[in-house]
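TOKENISE THE FOLD
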Amino acid sequence: MKNLGLYIHIPFCVSKCSYCDFCSFVPNLKQMQDYISALKREIIEAEKQAKGRNITSVYIGGGTPSTLYSGAIMEIMDCVRKKFTLVKNCSVTIEANPNSFSNEKATEYASAGCNRLSLGLQSDNDKILKVLNRAHNYSDCVNAIEAARKNGINDINVDLMLRVPQQTISDLQVTLSRVVDLPITHISAYGLICEPNTLLTKAIEQGRYTLPTEDEAVDMYNLTVKTLAEYGFLQYEISNFAKKGFRSVHNMNYWKRGEYLGLGLGAHSFINGVHYHNTEDFSKYLETPTNCKEDIEPETLKTAKEEMIMLALRTTDGLDIVEYNKNFSADFMQEYKSILKKLLENNLIEIKNNKLTIKDPYISNSIIAEFF
């Protein structure tokens, strides 16, 4: 049987973060109840697409899934288990904000089969959290981790954000020193992306905030990689670090170009060689959750090759040249001969044992762009 990753989007938050351009909003109870009802209808219909496939991971993301009413996650996972075949010890992740994850919710999520928690800490610094319009503090994160572990959820990720206005190297050093001592297994450290029309981007454009310089951003990234490695969080992707044996199963499936099925408002899918996403129109989704696909794009040989290169080079495992040649009946070294020559001469990449890797992950995007 083929493997499949399952993503379930919960578009609700208690408040909108200043940097966020995700498909999310602040709901009322009826909107949440209507959404869960529509989502279950989509899950039931999606059984046909997943036929003949094992679900190797479930990822309940958002938004903030932990803002849902009591019992909602149990409803979702009961429906998932009835309609899909989950592998033994399937990785089931739920995202939460530290201040919306209580002991009661930890008990429910564990009972629903969630065995991995991803907490959006971003920073331990109240000054930085205020810039990001986050409603929690560091103590909330400590308490959330304690509640998760008390209920048997021991695989825990913490999100951190780099290159935030008013953030200094010293601020980040303190944050890292505190986070590495937490009983967690995984850390995702993302550089802030100033998306158009977000509150934070507008504040920066108006001169109310100033971003760290590019040199400071590089120093922040290098400090993060170095510090996390010293404490056993080994980098395996540009922004992701894990203790041994705790890489994200769900995200590894993305980076290896595996199939995934996205359910819920705005969720993206790649299955049977086709990319598409659900509508981001909430009313439309509630009306027709089983018929709301948009931007349906069958992949071509060209897009498949580019996607494999792009995703593989984000990881420390790199691009498996033998696998590329086998998948596409191609000769990678000949196809990209001139590009590879330039990158090798500039000492930007390494080719060893038929694996192509980028030497400095911080500049991965610019190097990946060379292939396109």
